[in-house]
Design goal:
This protein is 42% helix and 23% strand. The protein is an alpha/beta fold and 265 residues long. Strands 1, 2, 3, 4, 5, 6, 7 and 8 form an 8-stranded mixed beta sheet that branches. Bound molecules: S-adenosylmethionine.
């Protein structure tokens, strides 16, 4: 798999910034009963595992990822948070190392957007979920980004990320598709809740944590590959990034919508 964001220190920090900034908006309403068995699929560096464990201190969480190097960082992060209810394992969503119906709940965040076969992934996850168990899926949608001041160059730079992710087999606009994907995979009682991040200068925490350190950092991260692939010239890309930073100034505004779905097997 070509992973569009790459596995590196800057991306690890970005994932942590993303998780800590969005904790309240995305995860405050996810908690699992004491004793329940939860599978977190595609845990990365454990940025969401910490929140899951804190919100459900008496659940048993198994967090898997295909990347052993991400898991190493995840283990360190969870240890330094003094959390003992999370077990990390290397594993592929498409070849899960668990018996059918092993888990009460499944949690998958910012992973389906990177997979070329998201419905098949949901099928695989459904197999290891108990009948009556729930899945929670959280995804962004880059088509939902709008801002002031408006900028065609910024739109083009964002489009580079969308295109690169597509070429890597993923879909950066998958948020809007969570309902049909879960329905196609055979889940029932599907509920999708859009969660908008709105950041202006009265919310410096969101401007820093989301507009700058999560979203703009992500677009900046694909500068070289976008230019190399001939998707955009350097100057326009850099203007786009400069314009994204302008949305973080006194009169700037940035909006983005995540989609959170829950469904039952
Ligand atoms: C954007 S990261 C998200 C990590 C974490 N869920 C978070 O929200 O911070 C996507 C993760 O999915 C993992 N991944 C991609 N394909 C996978 C697969 N087939 N099986 C397991 N993990 C996978 C990647 O290695 C990466 O760590």
């Amino acid at each position: 798999m070509t992973y569009v964001h790459g596995y590196n220190q800057a991306e690890n920090i970005r994932l942590q910034d993303q998780a800590s900034t969005l904790v309240e908006l995305l995860h405050s309403d996810t908690s699992y009963p004491a004793g329940s068995l939860v599978l977190e699929a595609g845990c990365g560096v454990g940025a969401q595992a910490v929140t899951l464990a804190r919100n459900s201190p008496h659940a048993h969480i198994t967090s898997i990822d295909i990347s052993e190097s991400s898991l190493e960082t995840a283990r360190k992060n969870i240890e330094s948070a003094s959390i003992r209810t999370v077990t990390f394992m290397q594993g592929d969503i498409f070849a899960l190392p668990f018996r059918p119906e092993s888990f009460d709940h499944i949690f998958v965040c910012f992973v389906l957007e990177h997979l070329s076969r998201p419905v098949e992934a949901l099928h695989c996850l459904k197999t290891v979920l108990k009948t009556g168990g729930t899945i929670t899926a959280v995804e962004g949608d880059h088509g939902s980004a709008f801002f002031h001041p408006d900028s065609t160059a910024a739109d083009k730079a964002i489009q580079c990320q969308v295109e690169l992710q597509k070429r890597a087999g993923g879909n950066a606009k998958i948020g809007r598709e969570l309902y049909p994907l879960l329905a196609t995979a055979g889940f029932s009682s599907i509920r999708v809740s859009p969660r908008m991040v709105y950041a202006d200068s009265s919310k410096p925490h969101l401007v820093e944590g989301f507009t700058k350190n999560t979203f703009t950092a992500m677009i900046e991260g694909v500068r070289e590959s976008s230019v190399e692939a001939g998707l955009l010239d350097k100057n326009t890309f850099d203007t786009g990034i400069r314009d994204l930073y302008k949305t973080t100034e006194k009169d700037g505004v940035f909006c983005y919508t995540f989609f959170k779905a829950t469904a039952t097997k």
